[in-house]
């Protein structure tokens, strides 16, 4: 596992040294650190373990986060939780972004190329994970122009409140990643005491898992009928043979009893049992969905399309917008200064932002707006129309004349707006100067 690095030697080369003109020189992390792997708790989780893990993170002398993140890692296997996390993350990750000059508004194509690489997409995922599961610390391993490599420090070894990384959980050996020598290589994403919004729904995740397990046990016990056999023989061999034959009949519960034995199952009504388990599971799934995506209709079967669209807009226009704003702060205030220290030529006016407005507008809707502007007499740049709608435009076309008046032909089959035109021929709209 590639992780942070313990210092064996320090190089005197300044971190602000520029890349060579060829742009092929790679700058690698000069520090070598190893974290000792240790036991990870994968036992059954309950509320008591969650409370103890929270207390461990709050110790004033020796705070520890391994119990908390062992619990989180185990609960992350929940299928419903994963679906909600994907919904929230993809609402941000599927948005285009760019680097612009804040004074001129022009895009920086060179920086856009560097940021439109796999490493930055993975960096955005880490930023979103820090919102969901708490503070993250990453270590950059190498820089070679657009090829940047980094790794995530396992959260169970990190103590954000102190800026420390434990090299061994059984010892107190730590390094302080806030020292100057680590600033060009290590980046903390999130606040010092943030455990993530998932901490709010850990009880629901635990209850959901345990109740599902209880329901599974209920199905094993009462889902199949009990098979019984009564015999009046006292020969142990015969009784054993009968019992073995019962076991071979299938997975149902079996029993061999002497005459006069009465077996009763004092079970609850099966319909009531279904309601108890299912309603409890559904309640906890609703709590999980509301915390992560703000509603329940985005993943459950919704019968009302308009309500589902309202909830979808709530995710895209409110929750995802807040996530994007947080990422913009991280990139502009932390990542870009670190890249400057590594020799990247990023100006003071260069600014990272997610594309909004026209970039997030559906193409048919954008065309409707553009067409409306054209019909209202506004001029729209031909180059922008060609690039936005992927239409090769070679020049303006001569409009046909009728008498001494000029008309523009509008084709409804191509999605063009065509008003009533009773006063001019051939379904053509009069062009006014």
Describe the 3D structure.
This protein is an alpha+beta fold and 433 residues long. It has 3 domains: 1-200 and 315-360, no CATH class; 203-293; 362-430, no CATH class. The protein is built from 11 helices and 14 strands. The protein has helices at residues 47-57, 66-75, 79-93, 109-115, 118-133, 202-222, 236-247, 270-293, 305-341, 363-375, 382-388; strands at 27-28, 97-101, 136-144, 147-152, 158-159, 164-166, 174-176, 186-189, 227-230, 254-257, 350-354, 401-402, 405-409, 428-430. The protein is extended and about 105 Å long. It starts with 26 loop residues before the first strand and ends with a strand.
- How many structural domains can be distinguished in the coordinates? 3
C-alpha Rg, in Å? 32 Å
- Would you tell me the overall average pLDDT? 78
Which bin fits the share of residues in helices?
A: 25-40%
Primary descriptors:
433 residues, alpha+beta, four-stranded antiparallel sheet, three-stranded antiparallel sheet, 14 strands, disordered N terminus, disordered C terminus
Layout: helices, strands, pairs:
Elements: E1 27-28, H1 47-57, H2 66-75, H3 79-93, E2 97-101, H4 109-115, H5 118-133, E3 136-144, E4 147-152, E5 158-159, E6 164-166, E7 174-176, E8 186-189, H6 202-222, E9 227-230, H7 236-247, E10 254-257, H8 270-293, H9 305-341, E11 350-354, H10 363-375, H11 382-388, E12 401-402, E13 405-409, E14 428-430
In a nutshell, what does this entry contain?
The protein has helices spanning 47-57, 66-75, 79-93, 109-115, 118-133, 202-222, 236-247, 270-293, 305-341, 363-375, 382-388, and strands at residues 27-28, 97-101, 136-144, 147-152, 158-159, 164-166, 174-176, 186-189, 227-230, 254-257, 350-354, 401-402, 405-409, 428-430. By secondary structure, the protein is of the alpha+beta class. Helix 1 (47-57) packs antiparallel against helix 2 (66-75), helix 3 packs across helix 9 (305-341) and helix 6 (202-222) packs antiparallel against helix 8 (270-293).
């Amino acid at each position: 596992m590639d992780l942070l690095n313990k210092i064996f030697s320090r190089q005197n080369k300044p971190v602000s040294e520029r890349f060579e003109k060829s742009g092929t020189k790679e700058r690698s992390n000069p520090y070598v650190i190893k974290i000792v792997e240790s036991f990870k708790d994968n036992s059954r989780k309950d509320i008591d373990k969650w409370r103890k893990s929270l207390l461990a993170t709050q110790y004033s002398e020796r705070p520890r986060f391994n119990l908390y993140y062992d619990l989180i890692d185990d609960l992350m296997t929940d299928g419903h939780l994963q679906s909600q996390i994907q919904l929230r993350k993809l609402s941000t990750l599927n948005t285009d972004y760019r680097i612009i000059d804040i004074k001129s508004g022009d895009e920086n194509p060179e920086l856009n190329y560097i940021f439109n690489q796999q490493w930055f997409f993975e960096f955005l995922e880490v930023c979103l994970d820090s919102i969901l599961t708490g503070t993250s610390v990453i270590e950059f391993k190498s820089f070679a122009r657009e090829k940047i490599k980094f790794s995530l420090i396992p959260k169970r070894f990190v103590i954000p409140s102190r800026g420390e990384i434990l090299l061994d959980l059984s010892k107190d050996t730590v390094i302080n990643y806030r020292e100057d020598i680590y600033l060009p290589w290590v980046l903390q994403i999130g606040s010092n005491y943030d455990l993530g919004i998932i901490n709010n729904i850990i009880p629901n995740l635990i209850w959901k898992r345990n109740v599902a397990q209880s329901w599974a046990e209920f199905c094993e016990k009462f889902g199949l009928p009990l098979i019984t056999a009564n015999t009046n023989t006292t020969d142990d061999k015969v009784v054993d043979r009968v019992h073995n034959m019962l076991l071979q009949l299938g997975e149902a519960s079996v029993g061999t009893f002497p005459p006069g034995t009465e077996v009763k199952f004092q079970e609850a009504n099966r319909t009531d049992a279904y309601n108890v388990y299912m309603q409890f599971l559904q309640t906890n799934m609703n709590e999980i969905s509301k915390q992560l995506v703000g509603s329940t209709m985005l993943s459950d079967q919704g019968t009302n399309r308009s309500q589902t669209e309202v909830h979808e807009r709530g995710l895209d226009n409110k929750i995802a917008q807040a996530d994007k704003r947080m990422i913009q702060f991280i990139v502009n205030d932390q990542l870009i200064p670190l890249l400057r220290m590594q020799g990247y030529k990023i100006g003071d006016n260069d600014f990272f932002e997610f594309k909004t407005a026209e970039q997030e507008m559906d193409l048919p809707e954008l065309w409707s707006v553009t067409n409306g502007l054209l019909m209202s007499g506004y001029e729209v740049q031909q180059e922008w129309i060609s690039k936005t709608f992927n239409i090769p435009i070679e020049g303006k076309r001569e409009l046909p004349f009728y008498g001494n008046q000029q008309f523009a032909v509008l084709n409804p089959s191509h999605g063009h707006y065509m008003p009533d035109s009773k006063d001019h021929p051939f379904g053509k709209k009069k062009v006014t100067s």
